Amino acid sequence: MKAPYRYDGIEASAYDLIDELSEFDDFDFYRMLIESNPGPVLDLGCGTGRILVPLAEQSIEVVGLDASEDMLAICREKLERGNSKARLIAGDMRRFELNESFATIVVPGFSIQLLLAEQELDACLQSCLAHLRPGGQLILPTYMPWEMLESGLDRMPLQKRREGPSDERGQRYVAWQGWEIDKREQRLTLKNRFQRVDSEDAVIQEQNREMTIRWHLPYEMQSRLSNLGYQEISLYGDFMFEAPQPQSESVIYVAGRTAD
């Protein structure tokens, strides 16, 4: 079975500077749910620690799991810099055995959608359920690509998407993105180019990557979670504590394990 997409190289180094999720406003949503169900937290697909580090800074017991050693190294450096504590584990989100349980498992950044095959998705959700304490909760945000679906196009060539600030040497990261969409298969392939350029815009380093995500309609994911044994499944839209709307770009599922 092919491993899911893994961030590395320039993409990992530039993530906090140019990835759109670096400015995403979802932390308070997760924090309120974690407060409602106190206990240890598993950040599944923790990456550079966008969610994990501020949780650790608030003295919340948190474990991070990610497949990318490059991303974990950045996360570890942030924790050391802030004198915060969290345990980081290199592992596969599809199947993991940590021999401990959690009050909350959060899969931020829409990472769950990198699991393209049905059996991979089910394996991950089953592993999450096995690692929840009785009464625990899984927080599962997903992304609906309305921008692409409503464009009337099935592809878009590379365009400059974002660029980061210049460092002391005048160098900066630049991100380009194009895409292809398969509405029938519910798959979006992002064609990304990451560059490090100098003050004259000459390219010092370049990396080309393709990332495919799969989206599910709310009733599909809700049914899947229920069939796997999750209970009390709630849906929220755009990181607000309100039901998702037909055009919500983010649909978040909060699914529980029954108390024994």
Structural class of the helix and strand makeup?
Answer: alpha/beta
Strand order of the largest sheet: 3-2-1-4-5-11-10
Mean pLDDT: 95
Secondary-structure element sequence?
Answer: HHEHEHEEHEHEEEEHEE
| pLDDT < 50 stretches | none
Topology:
Blueprint: H1 9-18, H2 27-36, E1 41-44, H3 52-57, E2 62-66, H4 69-81, E3 87-90, E4 102-106, H5 118-130, E5 132-143, H6 146-149, E6 155-163, E7 172-182, E8 187-197, E9 203-214, H7 218-227, E10 231-237, E11 250-256
Parallel strand pairs: 1-2, 1-4, 2-3, 4-5
Antiparallel strand pairs: 5-11, 6-7, 7-8, 8-9, 10-11
Characterization of this structure:
This protein has 2 domains: 9-144 and 216-256, Rossmann fold; 146-213, N-terminal domain of TfIIb (Single Sheet), CATH 2.20.25. The chain is α/β, with parallel strands linked by helices and 260 residues long. The two termini are 35 Å apart. The protein has helices at 9-18, 27-36, 52-57, 69-81, 118-130, 146-149, 218-227, and strands at residues 41-44, 62-66, 87-90, 102-106, 132-143, 155-163, 172-182, 187-197, 203-214, 231-237, 250-256. The strands form 2 sheets. It has a 7-stranded mixed beta sheet, with helices on both faces. A 4-stranded antiparallel beta sheet has the order 6-7-8-9, with helices on one face. The model has no long low-confidence stretch (mean pLDDT 95). Helix 3 (52-57) links the parallel strand 1 (41-44) and strand 2 (62-66).
